[in-house]
Write a structure and sequence with these properties.
The chain has 257 residues and is of the alpha+beta class. It has helices spanning 2-54, 70-74, 93-96, 98-111, 117-127, 141-149, 164-173, 227-233, and strands at 87-88, 91-92, 151-158, 176-181, 196-204, 209-213, 223-226, 242-253. Strand 1 (87-88) and strand 2 (91-92) form a beta hairpin. The chain is globular. The termini are far apart.
Length: 257
């Protein structure tokens, strides 16, 4: 009888030991899962932080760079729009709109109030001598200057500086430059281009490069290029070669839309 009780006690002890072992296994598994979950959560947070660093805004992100052409619009290119179909002086906007795209770039980038090239096209006719119905669609330097001044910009027209260092100083000290380039002067970057307005932004002295907004084609638009390319290509047969924009004054912006 005593022997039977002893065996029963041993069986009970073994059973309890088994239960304790199973509990320890379960606890260990739960702790392992918790550790794995913590590691996974940590990895997710790390990925989020890395993602934030990768998505850090760049200075050029706030620069507008409209395109003027029909091909760009029909291909759904960013920065293109239906203004490409506008006709004036027997021409389509894609043939004459580079100056107006450049002006819309300047106004939208620096004023914080977005406007399209078509709106700038209409506004220039209201406040300047620009009259594209007389057979020529392209806007001239005087109309560009007056229109920008009446929309709050301090700007100045000028001819190609005698030295490259002077041109570097212009790019460094102004918020942007609107320039007229021609492959007749230099075709290093622009080929088959008798005359074309572009805007230059964010001059980097250490790299001697500018951020280019070029409305003629998407492959040239929003590119960092050597400032020297621009200086060499300035159209010297034009009365003026550049317009320097120093700042925007909202109190002088008379454009009511």
């Amino acid at each position: 009888m005593k022997r039977g009780r002893g065996l029963a006690a041993i069986v009970l002890i073994l059973a309890l030991a088994g239960v304790l072992y199973a509990c320890q296994r379960i606890k260990g598994t739960e702790e392992q899962k918790e550790t794995e979950t913590a590691i996974e959560d940590s990895n997710i947070e790390l990925e989020k932080e890395l993602g934030k660093e990768e998505e850090e805004p760049k200075p050029e992100d706030v620069i507008f760079s409209y395109l003027q052409g029909i091909k760009s619009y029909e291909k759904g290119k960013e920065w293109s729009g239906p203004w490409c179909y506008e006709e004036a002086g027997g021409q389509q906007f894609s043939q004459f709109g580079c100056g107006l795209c450049s002006m819309a770039n300047i106004y939208s980038s620096l004023s914080g109030k977005e406007c399209t090239p078509l709106e700038m096209y209409e506004h220039a006719q209201e406040v300047s001598v620009y009259n594209p119905k007389r057979g020529v669609g392209a806007i001239g330097w005087d109309a560009i200057r007056v229109t920008l001044q009446k929309t709050g910009f301090e700007c100045e027209l000028g001819r190609k500086p005698l030295s490259y260092e002077e041109f570097q100083k212009l790019a460094r000290e102004n918020q942007c430059l609107l320039v007229l380039v021609s492959s007749d002067n230099d075709d290093t970057y622009w080929q088959d281009t008798p005359g074309h307005y572009v805007t230059l932004w964010l001059y980097q002295s250490d790299r001697d490069k500018v951020f280019l907004a070029d409305s003629s084609r998407s492959s040239r638009n929003r590119k960092w290029i050597p400032l020297r390319y621009v200086y060499d290509a300035l159209k010297t047969s034009s009365p003026q070669q550049y317009l320097a924009v120093s700042y925007y004054d909202v109190s002088k912006d008379g454009w009511v839309r």
